[in-house]
Design a protein that fits this description.
This protein is of the alpha+beta class. The strands form 5 sheets. Strands 9, 10, 11, 12, 13, 14, 15, 16 and 17 form a 9-stranded antiparallel beta sheet that branches. The protein has a 4-stranded mixed beta sheet with strand order 2-1-5-4. A hairpin with a 7-residue loop joins strand 10 and strand 11. Helix 12 crosses helix 17 and helix 13 packs antiparallel against helix 15. It is globular and about 75 Å long.
């Protein structure tokens, strides 16, 4: 595989634009043809005009359908879909009432959004058909093989299991309600909930932890058990997990419970950790005493005793795969100090519960993405009014500008506005697809009487001071400081080492103002 760096174009050639347009419009016609006949497609008020104008047309082949779609289909929000999703939680759950609700067939899982602007999480029906068209680059990073020893740190549990009944009263489908990564990983690996019990005592090919570890719901216990099995495997080559912060938490727990982990490894006994009783038997049957490894680790010492500690513990470690851009990037210095410079930190891609939108443009660049999706992504200029007339196509975007994505998906969303803001930086010279960086969340902000401080503002402040002469920031928390008027935003920082020379000088000049820096 070539490792040459791909440099974005500032504009599209006519050939790249034509190819990009053809791919996009072909995908859109396929999605419309499949989903216009669903319960949502045939009854949603937002699609009433569209249904009328396409009557009698061959939706999959007629190019004017694309024109009609862009002209009359409005942008939608979660309120358009919540009544349909609610049907999955009503009783009785009959197959005829739930089949073909938002997309053909029954969902493989109901995804719970992990970042939301509402009091309650949003729920999205996710269909296997959509995941089957997930970009290969994404599924390749999620999947494991027996050729690589991997610490596969994902949750496999679910909040609820919905049983759909057929006409004969028998269960025809069990639909887990779970976080998107859990459902996505299950679909990618074809791990159905019906077969969970047969896997509980097994270690899947390439994994180092038993399957049952994924059913530990307490975060600390979940990471401690994964840490125990990972430490026990000296030939570990890869970490796979949801967020980079998970890795940093993992290291903190190893540091804090080092003696307990070493003792467990020496004795071959799963430690007395809370919230694991329901899976302890499955864990213990896969854990053996390894006094040689315990002694080796004892000689190396816990994580914070030396730099590049991970490379001493796992000499074959090559890659950490996780979401590590945006606010998650603030822990990158801490992760890098533990991993060393020779371990690749690779972003799994760019997406959300609603859809997957992109992959990294270059290996090793965790902040820059190229649009790659099995769905259709359009864009709204954030400086323009929120109406469908202002929606732009991929080939209309301008480098340097910020946009809000609108997704039409195989899972049944129609021009659904994603609450993210991205900044376009150019176009991929191979495909013409837009290249972009995550800028921030649309509605995630600290609201003061005179200003709204967005996530992007907070991150930009942290990046500005994250220098050798100020401080090396590992993690931060922002709060509203109401001690004096006007209200301000204050930061708590966790830093590496001591504060820099610039802060020492400021402290000397104006020590009484140090708490406002």
């Amino acid at each position: 595989m070539s490792t040459s760096t791909v440099c974005p174009l500032s504009s599209l050639s006519s050939e790249l634009k034509a190819a990009l347009q053809e791919r996009t419009e072909h995908r859109l016609r396929n999605i419309v043809a499949s989903n216009i006949t669903t319960h949502y497609g045939t009854s949603a008020a937002s699609l009433s005009v569209f249904r009328r104008v396409i009557t009698g047309k061959n939706v999959q082949e007629d190019p004017t359908v694309v024109i009609d779609f862009r002209r009359v289909v409005p942008v939608t929000d979660y309120e358009s879909y919540s009544p349909f999703v609610a049907k999955f939680f009503s009783h009785p759950r009959k197959q005829f009432a739930l089949e073909n609700l938002l997309a053909p067939g029954l969902p493989s899982f109901i995804g719970i959004s992990s970042s939301t602007t509402r009091n309650k999480s949003k729920l999205f029906a996710k269909y296997s058909r959509g995941w089957s068209n997930t970009p290969p680059s994404f599924t390749k990073l999620l999947q494991t093989t027996n050729l690589e020893k991997t610490a596969y740190i994902y949750c496999f549990g679910y909040r609820e299991l919905l049983e759909v009944m057929g006409e004969d009263g028998e269960v025809v489908k069990k639909i887990p309600v779970c976080i998107g990564t859990c459902g996505g990983v299950r679909d990618t690996e074809n791990w159905s909930v019906e077969m969970d019990s047969t896997r509980m005592g097994a270690i899947m090919p390439g994994h180092v932890s038993p399957w049952a570890t994924g059913f530990i719901t307490h975060h600390r216990s979940f990471l401690l058990i994964h840490a125990l099995f990972a430490l026990s495997e000296p030939t570990l080559e890869r970490f796979n997990m949801t967020f980079l912060t998970f890795f940093v938490d993992l290291i903190h727990h190893i540091q804090e419970h080092w003696d307990m982990l070493i003792t467990s490894m020496r004795d071959g006994t799963i430690p007395d950790v809370e919230h694991i009783d329901h899976v302890r038997t499955y864990l213990q049957v896969n854990f053996r005493a390894n006094p040689w490894r315990a002694e080796e680790l004892q000689n190396i010492g816990p994580p914070l005793t030396c730099s590049a500690w991970a490379q001493r513990v796992w000499p074959n470690l090559k890659t950490l795969i996780c979401i590590c851009s945006g606010t998650f990037a603030t822990v990158m210095p801490k992760a890098r100090s533990v991993l060393g410079e020779n371990v690749l930190i690779q972003n799994v891609g760019y997406g959300c519960t609603e859809c997957i939108m992109g992959r990294t443009l270059n290996v090793g660049d965790t902040e820059t993405f190229v649009l790659e999706s099995g769905d259709v992504i359009e864009f709204l200029d954030v400086s323009e009014a929120l109406v469908h007339d202002n929606i732009l196509q991929s080939w209309d975007l301008q480098p340097g500008k910020c946009y809000q994505p609108a997704a039409t998906t195989e899972d049944g969303l129609w021009r659904y506005l994603i609450d993210d803001i991205i900044q376009v930086t150019g176009f991929d010279p191979r495909s013409g697809s837009p290249v972009f960086k995550f800028y921030g969340r649309k509605n995630l902000a600290i609201r003061l009487p005179y200003a709204a401080i967005t996530e992007a503002h907070l991150v930009s402040v942290v990046r500005a001071i994250n220098t050798e002469d100020v401080m090396k920031v590992q993690e931060f928390t922002a709060i509203v400081d109401q001690r004096e008027l006007p209200q301000t935003v204050g930061f708590f920082f966790e830093i590496i080492g001591d504060i820099g020379t610039l802060l020492h000088r400021l402290d000397h000049i104006a020590p009484t103002h140090h708490d406002t820096i």
